[in-house]
Amino acid sequence: MPGGRNGPETRQQIIDRFSELVADHGFEEASVSMLASSLGISKGTVVHHFPSKNLILCEAHLQYMDRRVREMYRILEHVQVPEHQLAAMMYCIIRAHRDDRPGTISFLREQSRFPFGGDVANLRTLRNEFTSIMTGILRRGQLSGAFAFEQVTLTAMQIFGQCNYVWTWFRLDEAATVEEVSAEFAANILRGVRATGKADDPEFSPKKLREFFVSLTPHLAPHHPPAGSRRTA
């Protein structure tokens, strides 16, 4: 491996490949032996970088949340309308099910393991920061009169639940694209949260939202194939 097996490139390959194995098999089944074999390195090399699987998972989740947070801040620099900000956040979450799929599935299916080892405090901070981005969008829309709902936090949890659950059923070979799923979800949510008289604005129809999502491409995180992956698809 370039840079030596004890170098940062190998460390990153371990993180990325482990995310992929956890996404495919679950944390319990994704063993250090399986990880080492898939990368063509020794178990000792893995343990040199990470003494436990929990530490690999925590680092993978830290990197994943950092990608999501940075991506949304880039979007918010260029999108000011609350409705479009909300739609964009939903799109970013759902898009990650396609373009950052191993990290997304690993993160969502193994969230209950967050407290077990690694930089838990920083991970919690990133999760809270991502949640605060969503609640900030909702609160600004509420204060401006664009949105009409009572509970900001509960509304945020509803949206997160809808978007995060996508991993359980979305497949890359399905007829519906990520853009179509995101536009339909966002249009439905906007119809529910927008103030009276604004719910049917054609500017926030699924068709218009799909066009809006395409315009975000320059500000989105690039596709993130795991560095250690041997997949060809």
From TrEMBL:
Residues 31-50 bind DNA. Keywords: DNA-binding, Transcription, Transcription regulation. GO terms for molecular function: DNA-binding transcription factor activity; transcription cis-regulatory region binding. PROSITE patterns: HTH_TETR_2 (PS50977). The keyword Heme does not apply. This is TetR/AcrR family transcriptional regulator. It comes from Amycolatopsis acidicola. InterPro entries: Homeodomain-like_sf, HTH-type_TetR-like_transc_reg, HTH_TetR, KstR2_TetR_C, Tet_transcr_reg_TetR-rel_C_sf. The keyword Membrane does not apply. It holds the Pfam family TetR_C_24. Residues 8-68 form the HTH tetR-type domain.
